[in-house]
Write a structure and sequence with these properties.
Order of helices and strands: HHHHHHHHHHHHHHHH
Strand content: under 5%
Distance between the termini: 36 Å
Shape: flat
CATH architecture of the largest domain: Orthogonal Bundle
Helix content: over 70%
CATH topology of the largest domain: MetI-like fold
Largest sheet: none
Radius of gyration: 28 Å
Length: about 400
Amino acid sequence: MATVYNGEVPTPSLMGFTIPLTAALGGFFGLIAGQSTGLGGLLGIASGAVAGAVIAYVLISFLSYKIGRLATIIVVGLIGVSLGGPLGLVVGLSAGAILGWCAYWLHLGRYRASLPPYATSGQVLWHNTFKFICGCIFFFLIAPIITIIPLSFNAQDFFTFTPEMLALDPAGYSLKHYQDFFTNDDWLRPMKNSLIIAPFATIISVSLGTLAAIGLSQSHVPFRRAIMAILISPMIVPLIISATGMFFFYSQMGLWMEEYLNLSKSLTGYIKVILAHAALGIPFVIITVTATLVGFDNSLTRAAANMGATPTVTFFKVQMPLILPGVISGALFAFITSFDEVVVVLFVGAAAQKTLPWQMFTGLREQISPTILAVATILVIVSIGLLATVELLRRRSERLRGLSPN
């Protein structure tokens, strides 16, 4: 059994696996440091392993949790700055935080915190291995996105880290790419188009998707599964196939609107793109609203009808307040889908409807503009904010339906 931590300095177990595993982690960091500083991989592994073992022994022998972790961060940070300058300081502080946490996490038995006391060693190993695998997958997905954020502040017109950036020299960083985005008409016009197309497409998606979800939630509707499969098919069918079909359909519709409705070619172009993006966003609305309706108490609508409420009043006064979190979540997903979409707008739209993703695609293919990195960073921040909003709404919806505690 691991030593119980009650605020006193725990007694080390040299025969356990705290020191060996911390030494292995130190060897990994040493390998990275050795390769980046020119010391060599073998020397880096050996030095890192020894440092990790010493840190683990000192922490679990003489220092309490808070003081030990702080001391590890400071010591390893000083080692990092001596080997690699400012960048080495950042890496050293991060490595020190991880090493200190790992030593105490192993020694205090916190790897068993979320498991029952009767869990076997194999179950404990698999539980933590599974969390490690999930962490690696998370890093694999997030690392490419995180990389573009510091690159967007590059003072040079490069897509790579310059020596000044690696040295954390302030001269290597600049906001000129962001300034170019907010002042260059080549970027402002596509941004304006995206802000016109995405909201209208979202409104159509929410209106049609919410009505479809409510209708399909009724048990008396025939062929519900088949209809649902057809409505969410834009999520399943490859986008290039959907874009090709939309091209032939909306091109004929555009000619009809220009000939019989006397609409301008620019206006018909916007209408075609908005309708195409609405078709892509409807499945997201249907899925989120349907998930919200799963826990909906239909006795509320029957009670409203018994008290004389019309179907319209029942919908807006009873149903909509309870399913509103799902509706807003679907609207956010539909907005993101429209705002980030590029394939369909290339097929359906024209130069007058060039959106921000289209401009980014053109910039990568033709002019290689580093402003793309600034735009990508802004879109990442906006997407994070929208997804955080979706998560808050999901939790609120669960509370309203009684699926989670307040």
